[in-house]
């Protein structure tokens, strides 16, 4: 076995101890339960969005006026700072649901990444606030 013989034959378990990290045993709670108690572990739904109100940079959310194309089920154009941006294509569409269990932090949006002659933009329809938002500008 060579130089690694001691490592290869080492058995880390004590007698009767399970190596299963995710199920409880008589002697200890599952490791995953202990890890979730750690203050440094956060669920993705609990993270604060950098694009929240007052944030600087490209992720600042701004309310915009959107013209909806019911036939395509997608935005036709949007108006930002007095300028109209016709949507050439919808690149991607997705739904964001966060903190649905907490009425104060709940977020429910239908999002669209749209291509215009001016660039690539992320638009979101806020279902709770009943308004359209520009949530990002993609480089």
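Sequence proposed for the structure above (139 residues):
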């Amino acid at each position: 076995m060579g130089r690694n013989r001691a490592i290869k034959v080492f058995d880390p378990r004590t007698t009767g101890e399970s190596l299963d990290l995710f199920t409880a045993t008589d002697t200890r709670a599952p490791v995953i339960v202990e890890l979730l108690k750690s203050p440094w572990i956060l669920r993705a739904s609990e993270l604060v969005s950098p694009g929240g109100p007052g944030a600087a940079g490209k992720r600042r959310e701004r309310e915009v006026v959107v013209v909806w194309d019911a036939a395509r089920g997608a935005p036709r154009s949007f108006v930002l700072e007095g300028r109209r941006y016709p949507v050439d294509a919808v690149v991607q569409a997705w739904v964001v649901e966060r903190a649905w269990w907490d009425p104060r932090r709940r977020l429910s949006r239908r999002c669209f990444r749209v291509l215009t002659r001016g660039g690539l933009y992320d638009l979101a329809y806020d279902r709770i606030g009943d308004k359209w938002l520009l949530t990002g500008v993609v480089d």
